Amino acid sequence: MTDRQFAFSITTTPFDEDYCPSDSTRITTNFANLARGESCRENLRNALTMIDNRFNALAHWDNPTADRYSVGLEIISVAMSLGAEGTSDAFPLIEILKTIILDRKTGARIEGIVGNNFSSYVRDYDFSILLPEYNRDRTQFSAPDGFGDLHGKLFRYFVNSAAYTANFSKAPVICLSVSSSRRYRRTDNHHPILGVEYKQDALSTTDHYFEKMGLQVRFFMPPGSVAPLAFYFGGDLLNDYSNLELISTISTMETFQKIYRPEIYNANSSAGQIYQPSLKHQDFSRSRIVYDREERSRLAVEQRRFTQEHFIKPYHAILEHWSASTSL
């Protein structure tokens, strides 16, 4: 398969209070879910305010009134064409977020980090169809051989593509919730922005999956947070990015986690020396933002079927051949 047969296209959409998800967006992803229902405009406005407030709390130097900065967000949608000359219908491969920092004091517009939230139809298929089917009759949970190989190669192929390097100057950083299946131990390592580092007892299935995407993971609990966040990155997390870049990711993704996993990230007590997160935790506060978990679960089933019918089945032979012949 040549590069001309295997092409990426990138579109950007502002994420603001007027945001409306496109037809190709995974409607269960964090930012799209906020833009659904009668309260969508209020949801979006409140979430953006939370992000700005958290950013200013962390970027407190030369910021006495805690309102110097505002965070702008762009949704980066990546479509992939597999047909000859790139003429076939493009499949919506992934969506990520890019942060932009506005300094109200100087008027400067500062590029932030690309990545942050990570939305992938193929990952949904792998975790929601392939993995459960493989473990259906097994007494001990495990992943099949080659699990995540295709997705990992597609992601790395995109990050190394001309389309990526033409639009972004640094490698992506993806920020997720910690896993409720793992225990985390606080270390003595402390970063002024990322906070105190935690180490987990063992790699999770998600960690191994992201390894195949060329990303390693570290866990930090930023100042003022109550639980560590998982940061997946390909370079040097602590030295490749500025303080403001790191703050833009923390403020954005911590806000999303407070909305979607308040049991962990809006808990009324912070993580201790040894910490195991739980979505069954009862001592937490809810945000003012409406979020329907049941609807999200129902819609997720539809999205898995979409991936299977429009990507996995029709392009199975092409994808298998490409994956087998590609080493990145």
Query: How many beta strands in the DSSP annotation?
Result: 10
Q: Biggest sheet, strands in spatial order?
A: 1-2-3-4-5-9-8-7-6-10
- The radius of gyration computed from the alpha-carbon positions, rounded to a whole number of angstroms, is 20 Å
How would you state the average pLDDT, rounded? 88
- Termini gap: 15 Å
Cα shape: globular
Individual helix count: 10
- Taking pLDDT < 50 over at least 5 consecutive residues as the criterion, the unreliable ranges are none
Helical fraction = 25-40%
Order of helices and strands: EHHEEEHHHEEEHEEHHEHH
Number of domains: 1
Q: Which structural class do the helices and strands define?
A: alpha+beta
Q: How much strand? A: 15-25%
Largest sheet: 10 strands, mixed
Please provide a written account of the structure.
With 328 residues, the protein is an alpha+beta fold. It has one domain. It is built from ten helices and ten strands. The chain has helices spanning 30-34, 40-58, 121-134, 149-159, 162-167, 205-211, 243-260, 262-265, 293-312, 316-325, and strands at 7-15, 69-81, 91-103, 109-120, 173-177, 184-191, 195-200, 216-221, 229-233, 274-275. A ten-stranded mixed sheet has the order 1-2-3-4-5-9-8-7-6-10. The longest helix is centred in the C-terminal third of the chain and has 20 residues, at 293-312. The mean pLDDT is 88.
